[in-house]
Amino acid sequence: MNQNKISVLLVDDHEVVRAGFRMLLSAQSFIGDISEIDRGELVCHEYGRVKPDVVVMDLSMPGIGGLEAIRRLRRQEANAIVLVYSIHDESIYVERALQAGAQGYVSKNSAADVLAEAVQVVAKGSQYIEEGLLPGSHDLKRSNFDASNEITDVLSPREFDVFCRLASGMTAHEVAADLHLGYKTVANYNTTIKNKLKADTAADLAHIAVALGIIKPG
Questions:
Q1: Ordered DSSP codes for the chain
Q2: Whole-angstrom Cα distance, residue 164 to residue 93?
Q3: Residue-wise pLDDT tens digits, 19-78
Q4: How many domains does the chain have?
Q5: What Pfam families does the record tag this protein with (predicted)?
Q6: Which pTM value belongs to this model?
Q7: Does residue 94 sit in the same domain as residue 54?
Q8: Of 87, 102, 129, which one is at a domain's C-terminal end?
Q9: How many alpha carbons lie under 13 Å from residue 143 in its C-beta half-sphere?
Q10: Torsion of CA 164, 168, 172, 174, to 10 degrees
Q11: What distance in Å separates the CA atoms of residue 197 and residue 199, rounded to the nearest whole number?
Q12: Which of 7, 26, 63, 116 could be 33's S-S partner, Cβ–Cβ 3.0 to 4.6 Å?
């Protein structure tokens, strides 16, 4: 690690995306060593090997996914600093990430310099949530959000990933392809999720997600 500079571990399953992150961060004078891996299962081992100051974590990855990777890393390394950088800008994802142990959250739809700023802020021990991603600065009502936490807390991180996709209208085959899971695995998740949420159909899942503000009507 370069002295007085922030070392970073990039965790994203897309090589092109990681290359973009590396280019963006390397241009910052306060960034030191940058290492990278392509899935959550490798995070704990790689963190122990390189001891980065900040882990920049995607959420939608093959295998255990980002949320579970954060939980495992924070159990192993209580002081690990994780900044989520995800395509998901729904408030429920932000809260789930914070509950798992992340110190910050930035949407991939944000301006490029927001990621660099976020890395610098969380490295100093402060929380960084991109403006507009949490209730209060968004159109999501706090009461709805609290209810969504209570209901979706019964779902594991991976079940939550599958639930959001099924509720948005994706088929089991589409979910399997998106999360790099087997179709039968997704079908099993589908059954478990419906049982936990007391839902009978995909339409029921959609209604639950809309009512809780997880997805927008229509």
A1: --TTSEEEEEE-S-HHHHHHHHHHHHTSTTEEEEEEESSGGGHHHHHHHH--SEEEE-S--STTHHHHHHHHHHHH-TT--EEEEES---HHHHHHHHHHT-SEEEETTS-HHHHHHHHHHHHTT--EE-TTSSTTSSSS-HHHHHHHHHHHTTS-HHHHHHHHHHHTT--HHHHHHHHT--HHHHHHHHHHHHHHHT--SHHHHHHHHHHTTSS---
A2: 10
A3: 988 998 999 999 999 999 998 899 999 999 999 999 999 998 888 889 999 999 999 999
A4: 2
A5: GerE (PF00196), Response_reg (PF00072)
A6: 0.74
A7: yes
A8: 129
A9: 0
A10: -110
A11: 5
A12: 7
Assigned token pair, 176: 């399997």
Amino acid letter, residue 109: N
List beta partners, residue 128: 104
**3-state SS of 145-194?**
HHHHHHHHCCCCHHHHHHHHHHHCCCCHHHHHHHHCCCHHHHHHHHHHHH
- Domain, as residue range, for 182: 142-211
The answer on pLDDT for 141 being more than 70 is no
Convert the pLDDT of each residue in 186-215 to its tens digit: 999 999 999 999 999 988 998 888 877 677
Give domain status of residue 217, yes or no.
Answer: no
| Cβ proximity of 147 and 197 under 8 Å | no
Chain position carrying tokens 């959550």: 40
CA dist 34 and 37 (Å) reads 11
Q: Which of 47, 157, 36, 172 is nearest to 92 (CA)?
A: 157
